[in-house]
Q: What sequence folds into this?
């Protein structure tokens, strides 16, 4: 055992080693075992996800970690496009938050779970009801009441249908977000494929250097040696 | 153990930490790339892939769950070459799974690869030594040290960027120290396995270290 650990140190033994490494079925077995382990896992990290759809005249969002658990008591800061704070709130015990809209502009929402996990999402002005006044860049000194929604004035049934539709849309968005964040097998295989590709590149360039070195040796000493 | 870019970009100090991490990681990677010779390429790629996949294996622990990092094992087998191996794996994790984010790539590489190199320098001789017991102890120490040093660097980076997180950072270090035991056991068993099956892998040293082995 000790002999095998210390003795073989020449270049040729290293080349044999590489050959054996590739031939070795054990290496592939280990790789297979790893593959089977991660294909069973879907949860990942502690990344925070935020979905923030507009419902009526409010942004009603939800913050949760990738494993599905809600981000409780996280600080939610709402900024205007210029970075000025429009308001603050916190998430409830289910990770939900609601922010009443007063202006029609892009709202940047920063959810900070307080432990180094933060996420910024932008709610675009296009999603907001056209009845809201445009953003003029100044937060009013005294909080005016949010303007009442126009749909409530024009036909109750239509408004109810619209609210229901918005709710369904919000659910659909949540589903899409969850689907996007699931770790999928092809992502993992893609990553391993990238590593194999890089390995090929490294082999190519190191091989070129090695050959050049060998040719240099041939010219100098006429006995080819590998660098 | 990943640092998220969104946690650092909010403050000037945080941006400084991101920049410093990127510069140090670039330097470490440059050193590491010079140490990779033709024969070691598959080993570096294999361990990079193992590191890439390890973060997906979650171990439930108390109220939270931790995932394997394996930086101790990577450092033990690769030494300085751990830098490029871990950089590539973290880049792919950031691209495919969004862990950490591309801006934090440098900081994350530093917090995980610097302990790996330290472990490789200090303990790799012991893992290929004569004594089986000493090799196992060194393997355990390598896994545990990889995590603990990484946690210290993680907490230092977080505290430098966001002083208000100091208490949280300290708490997180304590909470994750259990992971050090798990990593230690995993690394020790990997060392035991390699000693029986592929001792050359432990032996295959960095290019300059090759001569040291001959002298030993």
A:
């Amino acid at each position: 055992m000790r002999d095998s650990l210390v003795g073989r140190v020449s270049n040729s033994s290293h080349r044999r080693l590489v050959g054996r490494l590739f031939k070795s079925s054990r290496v592939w077995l280990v790789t297979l075992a790893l593959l089977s382990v991660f294909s069973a896992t879907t949860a990942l990290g502690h990344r925070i996800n935020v979905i923030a759809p507009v419902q009526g005249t409010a942004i009603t969002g939800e913050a949760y970690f990738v494993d599905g658990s809600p981000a409780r008591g996280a600080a939610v800061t709402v900024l205007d496009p210029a970075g000025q704070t429009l308001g603050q709130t916190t998430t409830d015990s289910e990770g939900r938050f609601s922010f009443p809209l007063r202006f029609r502009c892009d709202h940047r929402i920063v959810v900070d779970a307080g432990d180094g996990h933060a996420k910024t999402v932008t709610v675009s002005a296009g999603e907001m009801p056209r009845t809201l006044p445009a953003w003029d860049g100044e937060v009013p000194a005294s909080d005016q009441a949010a303007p009442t929604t126009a749909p409530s004035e024009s036909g109750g049934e239509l408004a109810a249908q619209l609210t229901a539709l918005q709710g369904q849309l919000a659910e659909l968005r949540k589903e899409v977000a969850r689907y996007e964040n699931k770790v999928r097998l092809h992502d993992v295989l893609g990553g391993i494929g990238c590593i194999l590709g890089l390995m090929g590149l490294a082999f190519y360039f190191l091989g070129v250097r090695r050959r050049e070195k060998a040719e240099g040796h041939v010219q100098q000493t006429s006995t080819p040696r590998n660098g | 153990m990943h640092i998220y870019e969104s946690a650092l970009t909010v403050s000037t100090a945080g941006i400084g930490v991101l920049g410093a991490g990127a510069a140090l990681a670039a330097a470490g990677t440059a050193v590491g790339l010079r140490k990779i010779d033709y024969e070691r390429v598959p080993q570096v790629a294999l361990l990079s892939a193992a590191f890439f996949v390890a973060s997906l294996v979650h171990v439930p622990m108390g109220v939270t769950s931790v995932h394997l990092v394996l930086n101790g094992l990577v450092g033990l087998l690769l030494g300085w070459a751990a830098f490029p191996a871990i950089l590539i794996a973290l880049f792919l994790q950031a691209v495919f799974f969004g862990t950490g984010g591309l801006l934090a790539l440098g900081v994350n590489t530093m917090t995980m690869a610097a302990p790996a190199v330290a472990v490789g320098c200090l303990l790799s001789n012991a893992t290929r030594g004569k004594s089986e017991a000493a090799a196992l102890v060194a393997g355990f120490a390598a896994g545990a040290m990889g995590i603990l040093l990484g946690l210290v660097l993680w907490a230092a980076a977080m505290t430098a960027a966001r002083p208000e997180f100091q208490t949280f950072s300290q708490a997180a270090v304590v909470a994750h120290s259990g992971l050090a035991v798990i990593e230690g056991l995993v690394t020790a068993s990997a060392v035991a396995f390699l000693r029986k099956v592929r001792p050359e892998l432990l032996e295959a040293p960095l290019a300059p270290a090759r001569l040291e082995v001959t002298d030993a």
User: Anything to note?
Assistant: The helical segments of chain A are 2-6, 11-23, 25-40, 156-181, 185-221.
